[in-house]
Structures are given as structure tokens and as C-alpha cells.
Amino acid sequence: MAFFTAASKADFQHQLKAALAQHISEQALPQVALFAEQFFGIISLDELTQRRLSDLVGCTLSAWRIIERFDHAQPKVNVYNPDYERHGWQSTHTAVEVLHHDLPFLVDSVRTELNRRGYSIHTLQTTVLSTRRGKHGELLEILPKGTHGEGVLQESLMYLEIDRCANNAELSVLSHELTQVLAEVRVAVADFEPMKAKVQQLLELVEQTPYPAVAGEKAEVKSFLEWLVGNHFTFLGYEEFVVKADAQGGQLVYDEQSFLGLTRLLRAGLTAEDLRIEDYAVAYLHEPLLLSFAKAAHPSRVHRPAYPDYVSIRQLDADGKVIKECRFMGLYTSSVYGESVHQIPYIRDKVAEVERRSGFDAKAHLGKELAQVLEVLPRDDLFQTPVDELFNTVMSIVQIQERNKIRVFLRKDPYGRFCYCLAYVPRDIYSTEVRQKIQQVLMERLKASDCEFWTFFSESVLARVQLILRVDPKNRIDIDPKQLENEVIQACRSWQDDYAALTVEAFGEAQGTNVLADFPKGFPAGYRERFAAHSAVVDMQHLLNLSEKKPLVMSFYQPLTRTGKHILHCKLYHADTPLALSDVLPILENLGLRVLGEFPYRLRHTNGREFWIHDFAFTYSEGLNLDIQQLNDTLQDAFVHIVNGDAENDAFNRLVLTAGLPWRDVALLRAYARYLKQIRLGFDLGYIASTLNNHTDIARELTRLFKTRFYLARKLTAEDLEDKQQRLEQAILSALDDVQVLNEDRILRRYLDLIKATLRTNFYQPDANGQNKSYFSFKFNPRLIPELPKPVPKFEIFVYSPRVEGVHLRFGNVARGGLRWSDREEDFRTEVLGLVKAQQVKNSVIVPVGAKGGFLPRRLPLGGSRDDIAAEGIACYRIFISGLLDITDNLKDGGVVPPANVVRHDDDDPYLVVAADKGTATFSDIANGIAIDYGFWLGDAFASGGSAGYDHKKMGITARGAWVGVQRHFRERGINVQKDVITVVGIGDMAGDVFGNGLLMSETLQLVAAFNHLHIFIDPNPDPATSFAERKRLFDLPRSAWSDYDTSIMSEGGGIFPRSAKSIAITPQMKERFAIEADKLTPTELLNALLKAPVDLLWNGGIGTYVKSSSESHADVGDKANDALRVNGDELRCKVVGEGGNLGMTQLGRVEFGLNGGATNTDFIDNAGGVDCSDHEVNIKILLNEVVQAGDMTEKQRNQLLGSMTDEVATLVLGNNYKQTQALSLAARRAKERIAEYKRLMADLESRGKLDRAIEFLPSEEQLAERIAANQGLSRAELSVLISYSKIDLKEALLKSLVPDDDYLTRDMETAFPPSLVHKFADAMRRHRLKREIVSTQIANDLVNNMGITFVQRLKESTGMSPANVAGAYVIVRDIFHLPHWFRQIEALDYQVPAEVQLTLMDELMRLGRRATRWFLRSRRNEQDAGRDVAHFGPQIAALGLKLDELLEGPTRERWQTRYQSFVEAGVPELLARMVAGTTHLYTLLPIIEASDVTGQEPAKVAKAFFAVGSALDLTWYLQEISNLPVENNWQALAREAFRDDIDLQQRAITISVLQMADAPEDMDARVALWMEQHRVMVERWRAMLDDLRAATGTDYAMYAVANRELVDLALSGQSAVIPS
Q1: Which pTM value belongs to this model?
Q2: What is the DSSP string of 342-385?
Q3: Is 439 left (phi over 0), alpha (psi -120 to 50) or beta?
Q4: If you write DSSP's letter for every residue of 73-103 in order, what string do you get?
Q5: Which of 41, 1198, 1333, 1495 is deepest in the core (most CB within 10 A)?
């Protein structure tokens, strides 16, 4: 049954009656109802309605059962825990039911006993019932309340609910005790009248006392006794006793017959010890006092819980000897405490005597003061204190009335059982706490066992506390009241008093007073409880020392009371805001301190500013020997820097405590650990930290080694430094031998490796203010770091701070690449390594080799706005750039200037450039600003693309470069992307540089689908013109998304869909365009389908990897975000992929796509335009900055000039893209038949450590064998890698050679600069700081682009010459044959003749270049001189080349004309066709000119002879046959080349022989005929050999070897003939 409601008490009784009716008979109901009415009579309705009605019914019936039968002689006490099973109702409390015949004091006494036992009373219902009972006590009738009369009994019923008793034993103890209390009440009440009668007897006794000395007191004593009986005293007991003295003191001897009231119970069964009293009590009891007062030793259990008072009348004989003592025990009634002291007999005499002695005028101030003191003095003191003592006490009290000081008055009870104390305390400091302090002092000094107190407040400034202390009579304590008072004063002296005094003492009066005034509320109560005032003064000094620079102070201290072993205490001081415990705790835990407790205290300055003190108690690990002073320095320093964010909060900080390392040394070890994480050592930071903590000795030694290498090294000689390093290293290695755990050993050894691999650091380089820098940078020699992930760079810089981390990887002294804002916290170096790999091959077209940087901001604002995040990113970028420049050499006045305070363990290394990348596109000006602040020699050439540089997006250079590749792919498929409509699927949006610019490259594009991270754009059948205009509009907006596209111009069935949509409906148009069958797809499924769509072009201008190979897993790709939509290379159905963005496809994905007929280069080929443009910018700036510094140009003029050359730079860059993709097409065309050459090239690069096939995903030997079997060559993607490596390798070789120093070859650097610049600054260009690098780069690019990837390798193998010789020879050949001119002629035929024809023409030029270069290498083995050779051969070849018509004859001429005609018919201009058709003959001009040199005859004449010999001996046919020989291996290739060289040599020898014939005709044909006649035998042998060759069915190298031998014999016969005898 739930709680109930009732409108009134009557309503409640009505509800109760109805409920009772269910449990009792109808007859009994009226009686029970009447009982219930009386039972709940005094309880309020509120209290009742908080209980369940069923429980109220239960307790009513329970009480009713008690009263049903009752014997007055046997009071009833029931104590029980009601529950449903046993009692039919329940309560959470214990129920106490008492039924007793009505007596005074019953309720008070029961309640007192319960309180004394600590029970709280929750319900108390008492009523006095008027009943009639039968002779056996059965209830006959309950009468209305207050009924009296014959046979009517008055019975007191009590019902209480108290705190629940836990068990039955407790219930029975309580029941027993209450029964006893009731017995005491009965005894006391029964003897009340006899005791009053006893007073009358004593009045007689007093009157008859014969002792004369008390005669004057008799009347007052009698008045007092009468006053007592007059309702001023509750008599509880009476007794008479005598005192028997003995050696130990004395004993009380009671007269048992005299006992009345409680004494009957209390004096029963007393032992001798109980009756013993001390000698001073004996003396007191023998004093002839008629009336005396005292306190009983035990509190009363009847009526009130106070110590009862004794009132004694002593029976004296005539000599004043005490015959016996008659003693009443009882309690003064409450009226006594309110009655005036002038009205109470006996006391009034004492009061009058005190007033008389004082001599005060009753009407004057002091008289009134005295009267007031006496009036409020505790009655106990008035009764018990002798007049003399009373006078002294009262006078003292009067004197201190209005003085703010503490006074204590002490009085001892004559029996020695009590001490009475009056303490006066100023009201403004009085509190429970003060009272407890007084009580504590008194109890300790008096050795009291119990204490009662009463506090009295009046208008006075003093509060009075009366204390009654229970003491042991045996403890004879001699108390000096003055000293006791001082102790109390000291105890009550407030903490604040001490603090104020000490503050003035510590700070001086003026400042001390100000400090107290500034903090009026002082220290909070919690602080005052825990700390002494002198601690507060120290803490205040710390607080006042807080400042902007020092916002946090930490102080360790040892409390006076040592709290245990391994326990430390510390306070943190902080202004304005409290330190959040959740922030501080992890920091302290990581410092190796386990927090046991923390107490924050707040102080408030009058100006409203808050100051905080946090008090901590810690434990720390065993085995640590800590010095608090040292801790205060290092640990405080560490803690403050961690809280400020200068140091990280992690387990490394434990080293501050365990190894005693300062925080920066710990941060150094942490920085190395974070680098270890990036180089994939395979252990998490926590494990690395615990390793160092387990081996603190090694950790210390490692930091010492670092300090020695980079700090002490400044002051040491090289030998001393080496010696010190050796010793330290040896010590570390010895200590490592004791490391048991293999993983720990590995970590510590790697630390040693890293420190030894560190070349430079800014760790000891102060900032401009002389402070330590907030970040560290380390320059490594990565080759000294074991197990570094490949590829291994040449240099690496790692920048570390808690705010940002970054790496910069360089693959050479002159290297370039962008800086990426990475978001890959776990492995940003891996990301950068992947990028630098692409950068390395991409940079093959430019001067610097690959470099790449990446930085990771570690504290981006959570939930911050775009601007907040950008601001933090820029701040991190600044730190990163500064870290790089801190340890980089500078150039000044042509000399190298090392960075200040940096010890260098490497050579000069001043070339450092950076560029923009993902996330840092707009940061170049920031980087340049920092470089200029540093005074760095490159100035604003440091970071390309700034405001005074070339804006890649504005120029669209990256997209334009990639578009060159797209144009070529389609041109080779007979499509002109600028005029023909092609369908495109794109990745990215129009706001992006590469995507936006790329999709504005042609107005005939149909962008049918595109997507970025937010939207999917689908336009199945767009109108090229209107969609182009809309794309242009979007591109021109400051910020745009696909959602800004005007959907009204989109074709039917298209739309723009958010990638967050649950599903997208596939329209019929979409199904048709993208070959989709489903009706509905999720966005991810749709994207997957779009990537596989049958379109012309897939254009990637976004971020992410979307294509992999079928052999790779998504995990291999490392781009989780796109796992669900990524496709395989063999699933792509587009014709061409344009890679404007990086990493859009995996390399194996490209290969798979290529082998399945798709057209693609690679990202680094397609988008090299950006880096190429940046490099041009830097090289131009280096050139012009020199001019500016020389004073020949202002910076403004420089900037204008830079801007004016934008189009020229773009032309240069796009030219590189064009040439490189053209070279790839030429290579791809012959990839199958040339596979063996590539195989050898890869093997050679690998053997020299220049290439790692696995890293570059190039086919292994087994895979190559499979390709050959499948009649497949290398794919374009693989050739892209090889063309880059080929260029890189050649660049390196040239740089190490004398080629860049050759005046003639140096002219090649001009091709790297805009023509207008070459014209103006030719001299300055020759002095360019990177002249050698630029020359090497330009020659390498030109050579590989025009002559092919394996050109150098082939010539190295066939001639044994160095790459530098090959390159030098190539430049000679290039210039004497004007190859660039002819290449340009062929390139100008784009879209005019089929691409295949163009490639065939170029192939012919390449063959000419190759053969001519080999000729030069063979014939000018050790005497190359480019300038001389070009000057010699150039004009002669130009002259002879025009005369081919006249020079050629016979079948040779016919063959030439046939080829030339076929070219002209294909649309090739006549002059070009003639030249290309005759490349074989042009080559032969070289030996002709050489023969001309030997014979001294006209070149034209020599040429005529040469060709006549060739025709006559059919050498042209023979040479053609040899060229057509199939090559199956390298030996055959070399043999074929040797055969051709032999033919050249022999033909030249025969020609010389013919020309040198004596007496021969002038006509060349006649002359040749004569020569042949003279050598008829050999000529016939040769012709017979040719007939055999023509008749042979197969081709065998052996046949040609024999034939060549015959030709040699023929030539030799000619030579012998002309040798004079």
C-alpha cells in the first residue's frame, strides 16, 4: 500500500478506522478506534502521511495488543524490528513500546537513555490512557482522555521509532536498560514524599546544632532547605554516611537504613575501592560546615542527563566535629536558573558579602556591572565556591568585562572529582573550534575523562564558556592557573594572528602591512588547518614572485612530521586560474611521482585577481635517493615547462627523477625516440621511454655523448674530441653488454647510432634573446643509420618540438622538392619518403635532385575554425623552416659562413631550397621572409612560387605540363584533343589548381563525371561549349565547390550528389554513359563505377590513390580513405589517364593498365611542370640576385623582369614535358625488341647501388622472362622510371667529370634560361653558382630525350668509354648534324602527319646520332675537343649533305630516293624527307671527311670516291643486310655493331687507296674500275661471298664474320698495293 493523503486529522482517523475494521471484530472496533485517536493524538498530520497506512495500522494493533493485558507491577518494554512475516507490518526503524502506570519523568527518562546510547528518535507517540481492568489485568474499557474516578487507572503508553538495531543482542540490551531506567524512575518517585519529609527532620537537626560557630547561619540554612522543598529541587535520593580516616585517605561508611530513592540502587554492591576517598576530601568532609554542595560522580538517568547536585547537612557536635553527613541528591529545577541571586537563600548572603567587599556604589557603573556578573554567574559556582574565592573571581571578571582578551578561571571540586572552569573569550574569535581548543587544553592538562560545557552570550564583547571536567580524584595535579591560562590563550591564538605577526616580520612593516591589506581574507580555512603560519609567509613570497615570465612556481618541502618513507610534498603556485587536476595529474605521474592527495587553496587579491596554491603529496619509486634542493631546481624546471607546453607530457619525463636529467636533455632523448618511431624501428614511445628508465646510466651517457659532440666540441681540438667520444662510446657499449633484454639493447644501440649519425644540431644554439629555442633540429647522415627504410637519402633534417615535427629528405647537395603539411602523425616520414621517391625521378628534368619535406602540426585547435587551424599550421611551418635554416650554411661574399653555435661534422652544404606542396601552396612568402630574416644567401629564391615568383596556379603550369602528355597519348591514337570531342571523368574540383586548369585546357571536353571529397558531379551528355564556360566561371571564383555549378545547363539524367547520401538513383542516361546496370548505388559504389567507366580520359587532379594493381591489397596502398572505391588497373576502361595529381595510381596499377592497352605515363612525368617551373625560378633568381647585389639592377626591376619572362619560362617548362613524353613514346615503340637493353641498364644501375627495383616496382629477372614469353616489353610507366634514373645517373656522372668546365659544352646552360635573359646577361650566366649543375642537367636531358634511355649504356658497353665521353661526343654529333633543328622540323608536323610517321623520322635521327657518336668515341678516343671538332666537321657536313643527289649513284641512290618519296607522300616537307632518308649516308660523311683529312683531297671528291666504292662493291646492300640482322642477345648486338664499324673502316681504307692511286684517271668511276681490275682476284672472292650471302636462306652471324674477313683482306690488298716498295 502506498503512502496516503488525508484532508484533516479527523479524515485520517476515519481512514484508519476503516483500515482497522479489516483486522478486528465489529464489537472491538469502537474501543480500538478510541485508542487510536488517543494513540496518534499529538502527532502532526504531515508526519503521519509520510508513513504507509498499513504500517500505521500495524503499529496501532501492536500497541493495542500490549494494553490488552497489563499488570501495574510489571511494566512492559518491547523493543523489536517490525517485519511483515512476524508482525504483519514493517518499518525501516526499530520500534520501542513502553507501557507503565503513569508516573512523572517516564518520557524524559526513556528519551534520555536512548539519546545517551546514541539512538536518533524518528517518532515519539505518548499518551496517558484512562482504563478499567479486571482482576487479572485484562482490559475492560478505555475511557475518554483525562477520565478519573474509582477503579479508573492511569497508564502511560509510549511508542518510539529509533535507529534500527542491527541484531537481537542489541535489541535485548536496549530492552534491559530501559527496564532498569524505569525501575530507577519508580524508586525516585516512590520516595519523593519521604525525602521531602526528611527535609523537615533536618530542619529540626539544624536548629538543634550545638556548635556555636554556625549559630548565625542556621536561619539562612533553614530558609534554604525550605526553599528547596518549594519546588526548586527534584529529589532523586537521600543518604547518610560517616567518614573513617586511614593512612591512604579515608572511606565512606553509609547507613543503609537511611537510603531513599536512587541511593537504594546506586549504593548497592559497592567495593572498598568505590568507597575510598582521598585525604583532601576527608579533610573537607571533616570541616564544620552546616551546609555544603557538590556534584554526583555519575550523570542522572532520571529526568535529565546532567550530573546530579548534592546538598549536604552535616550533623555537628558542640566542638564542631562532624558526626555524620545527611545528603540529598537531585536536580535543581529550571526555575532556579532563572531566579535572581538575590532571591535564593544562602546564595543571597554570599552575593551581599561580595558586593559589600567590592565597595562599589550599587547605582554606579561598576556596581551595576558587578550585579550583572553575579546575576549571570553559573549557579554551581555560586553554591559551591567559598566567599573569598568567589569575590576574587567575580572582581577579576568585572575587570575584563570590556577588554578583548581571554581569561580562564579554574575551580576544583572538594571531592576531587570535578574541575569547574569559566573561560571568557572575545566574541569575534569565539567559535566551536576555539571552544574545542580550550576544552582540549583543559582535558589534556587536567587529564579529564569527560567534559560538559555551556556557552553564554550577552551584550558583552566576551563570550563565556562554562566547562565541567570529570577528573580522577587520585590524579593530584598541581595546576598553575596562570600557566594554564597562557596555554589556553596560545591555543586560542588564531592562526591569522601568527600569520600577521610573521608577515610583518618577514616583509618589513610597510610591505607586510600592504600584503595583509592586499589579501584581506588571508588564507582559506583548509589551508590554515594543514599549515603553520610560517609556511604561509613562504607561500606568499612565492605567490608574489609570480609574473608573466614565471606564471607557475613549484616548491618541494618536507613537513615537520615525516609522513612516511618515499613520500614527497610539493606546492604549485599559479595565478588567475586553478590548474585542472586532470591536466596536472598525468604530468606528475609521468614525472614518476604518484599522487596521493591534492589540496587546492585560493587566495583573492583586493583587485579581484585570484591566486592558487595546490598542495600535493606523492610517493616515488624505491631505490631513488632524492635531494629536495636538487629536485626544486630540475623537477620544478621540468614541470613548469611541461605545463607551459614547452616539453611533452609522457613517460620520458620520469628520467628527470630516475636519471636526474634536466628537462631539455629528456626532450632530446624524446626527440630521438620520435624520430625512431618515424623510421619504423617497431617500438612504441612508451616502450622506448621505459627502456631508458630501466637503464638510466646509459641514458645519462647518451646525453653526455651528445653534449660532447655538439657543445664541448667547440672548445676541443679534433684529437681531444675524438678521444673523448671514443671513451664515452666505449663506456656505453660496455654498459650495453649488461642489458639483458634484446629489444632494449636494440633501442639503446639505435640511440647510439643516431647520435653518431647526427651531423649538426641547433640544440645549443640560443635564439635572438639568448634563450634556448623551443624546437630542436638535427641533421643526419642517413647512411650511418642501420635499417633505415629505403630509399636512403643523402641528408636528412629532423625538426622536433611538442608543437610540430617534420623531416626534410635530400638526395644530394643540390636538391629540391616541396614541403607538405601532413596529417599522418604515426608515419609522416613514410609519406614523405613515398613523395621523395616520386620527386627524385620527377627532378631528373631539372638541376637539383629530389628532396621532400613534411611537417605535422601536433596541437591543432580542437574544434577550431578554418582560420584557427590555418594560423596554427603557419606557426608550425615557421618553426619547421627555422629549424632547417638554423643548421644550414650560408654564403657571403663568395665564401661559406657556417651557422652560429653549430658544430659541424660534415662539409660545407649551403644549398637548401623548399617549395609548396599539399597544404602549403600559399606559404612561400612566409618561408622567404624567414630566409631573408636569416640573411640566407638565396633570399627569395629559397622558396619558389612566392609573390615575386611564378604563381603555378595562375600559370596553370602543372596542368599544362600534364596536358602535353594527354595531347600526345591522343595524338598517337589519331585524336586531336583541342578539336575533337573527348569524354572525361575527373577527380577533383574546379577550385583546385591541377584539376581546374586541366579542365580548361580544351573547349571540346565533355566532362561527364567528377568527384571530390564532398560531391559527385554527373553530366552524362554535356554541351562542350556551355559546360566549358561554367567551369571557367567556377575556376574564377575565390572558393568554389561542385555545389556551385549551374545545374540548369546540365544534361538530362545528371546531377550533383553529396557523398554523404545514403544512395543515388541511377538514371537511364547514367546507365548508358557509364555502362552501369544497377538502378540504385551508394555514393562509394557509384564512384567505383565511374572510375571504371568507358570514357576517353580519366583526369586526376585530386588527392588520394584510386587505382592499384590486382596483385596489391588495399593495405599495400596506404590510403585507407579510398579503400572502398579503389579499382584495379585492369578494370579501367578509359583510353588515357592524365596524372596531374600525385599518387593517383600505384606504380603497379599503372603497369597493369599499360599492359592492358591503356595509355599513361606516371605522376612524376605528367606533373613535373610545377617543379621544373620552380627550378627555373630559383636559377633565374640566383642569377639576378647577383646582378642586384652588384648594383646593376634594383629589386623592383628584377621583379618586373621576372614577371615579363613568365611566358618564356612556361615555354621552356612545357618544352621539357613535350620532349620527355616524346622520348617515352619513342622508347615504348621499341620497348619489346629493346627489352634486353633495358634489362642490362637495370642490372648496371642496381650493381652500382643507384636503383632498387623493388622500391621502384620494376620487373624482376623472372618477370622480364615472362614478358618476353608473352611478347610484351616494358610499359610506359616502367620506362618513365628508367628515363628518370638514366638522366639522374648521367647528371651525376657529368657533374663529377670535366664536361661542365668545357667552354664549348658550357653553352648548353643557355637552354635553361629564357632567350631574352641569355641575350642580356650572358657573362653573369657563366658565373652562375650552379653553372656546373645546370650544364650537366641540360646535356643529360637533351641526350636522353633525343637519343633514348639506353643510349649511354649501349655506348659505354660497346666502346668502353665513360658517360662523360659519351655525352661530349653526343654534343659534337648533335651540333655538326644540327639534330635539334631537324627534331624541331619533325615536331612541327604534329597533327599534319600521323604520329607514327613522326616517330619513324625521329628513330632515323636517333640512329644517326647513335652511330655518329660511336664513330667519334672510336676515332677520337682520347682527344675529344668539342669546339674544335664541331668547327671542323660542321661546315663540311653541311656542304656535303646538300650534294647527296650528286654523290649517290646506282642502287644506293635508288634506295634513297624510294625512302625519300615515301616520306614526302606521307606529308613530310621535302628537305626534311631528303635529310632523314639519307641518314645512313650522312653518317658516312664522317669517315669521308676523315679520309679527306688523310689524303688532303677535296671532301666532295673523297665522298664521290667513297660512294663509288660502296656501289661498286655493293657495300650499301651489305651494310643494310647487317643492320637487318636480328639481335637475340647482347653479344649479337655488339657483334653487329662491330661488323658495321668494320665496313666503315674498310670502305674508308679502300677509298683512301683509290684516291692515292698513281697514274689513275680523274673520272671517279673509271678510277674505281681500274682499282678493281688491279685487285681482281680479291674483288671476285668478295663478290662470290656476296652471292653466297644472297643465296643463303637463314641469317647467321658466322657467315657475316667470314664475309667481313674477306672485306678486310680486300682492303688490305689495296693498302699493300699503294705502299711504296
Answers
A1: 0.69
A2: TTSTTHHHHHHHHHHHHT--TTSHHHHHHHHHHHHS-HHHHHHS
A3: alpha
A4: TS-EEEEE---HHHHS---SSEEEEEEEE--
A5: 1333
CA angle 1193/1198/1200 to nearest 5° reads 130
Question: Each residue of 74-99: pLDDT tens digit?
Answer: 999 999 999 888 888 888 899 999 99
**pLDDT tens-digit map of 792-828:** 999 999 999 999 999 999 999 999 888 999 988 988 9
Q: How far apart, in whole angstroms, are the C-alpha atoms of residue 580 and residue 575? A: 13
Decide if 1367 contacts 1375 (C-beta within 8 A).
Answer: no
Q: Looking at this protein, which amino acid is placed at residue 1046?
A: D
Cα–Cα dist 910/890, whole Å: 5
- DSSP assignment of 887-909: TS-EEETTEEEPPTT---SS---
Q: Quote the CA–CA distance of 571 and 140 in Å, as a whole number.
A: 79
Bridge partners, residue 131, by sequence: 142, 153
Q: Mean of the pLDDT values across residues 205-234?
A: 92
Of 1054, 1094, 1057, which is closest to residue 1074 (Cα–Cα)? 1094
At 1581, is the pLDDT very low, low, confident or very high (cuts 50, 70, 90)? confident
Cβ–Cβ < 8 Å for 1457, 1481: no
- Measured at the CA of 68, the angle between CA 66 and CA 71, to 5 degrees, comes to 80
- What does DSSP say about strands 1097-1100 and 1136-1139: parallel, antiparallel, or unpaired? parallel
C-alpha closest to that of 1444 among 1516, 1370, 1347, 1386: 1516
Which positions ≥6 away from 908 have C-beta within 8 Å? 889, 896, 898
The DSSP output letter for 927 is H
Q: Which three cell numbers stand for residue 361?
A: 556604589
Chain-centroid distance of CA 313 in Å reads: 88
In the block, residue with C-alpha cell 614525472: 591
Nearest CA among 1007, 1004, 1006, 1008 for reference residue 979: 1004
- Report the phi/psi class of residue 979: left, alpha or beta, with left for phi > 0 and alpha for psi in -120 to 50: alpha
Q: Which of 222, 837, 842, 852 is catalytic?
A: 852
Question: Is 852 designated active site?
Answer: yes
3 state DSSP class of 140 = strand
Grid coordinates representing 845 are: 628534368
| Contacts of the segment 1377-1384: beta carbons below 8 A, 24+ positions apart | 1377/1408, 1377/1409, 1377/1412, 1377/1437, 1377/1482, 1378/1438, 1379/1346, 1379/1405, 1379/1408, 1379/1409, 1380/1342, 1380/1346, 1382/1472, 1382/1475, 1382/1476, 1383/1346
| Nearest C-alpha neighbor of 1202 from the set 1175, 1187, 1184, 1215 | 1184
d(CA 1586, CA 702): 80
Report the first-to-last Cα separation within the chain, whole angstroms: 149
Residue the block writes with cell 504531515: 46
Q: What are the residue ranges of helices labelled H in 165-249?
A: 168-190, 192-207, 218-229
Max Cα separation, the chain? 197
- Mean pLDDT across 1550-1563: 83
The C-alpha cell of 790 is what? 629505403
Q: Is the pLDDT of residue 366 over 90?
A: no
Dihedrals phi, psi of 854, to nearest 5 degrees:
-150, 140
Please state, rounded to an integer, the average pLDDT across all residues of the chain: 90
* Residue 356, C-alpha cell as written in the block: 559589600
Rounded to whole angstroms, the Cα distance separating 836 from 915 reads 13
Identify whether the C-beta of residue 754 lies closer than 8 Å to the C-beta of residue 676. yes
pLDDT at 149: 87
Mean pLDDT of 761-783: 95
What are 551-565's pLDDT values in tens digits? 888 888 877 666 556
Phi, psi of 780 (to 5 degrees): -110, 155
Q: Could you give the C-alpha distances from 46 to 6, 12, 18, in angstroms and in order?
A: 9, 11, 20
Q: Would strands 153-162 and 121-133 be described as parallel, antiparallel, or unpaired?
A: antiparallel
User: Per-residue confidence at 1073, pLDDT binned at 50, 70, 90?
Assistant: very high
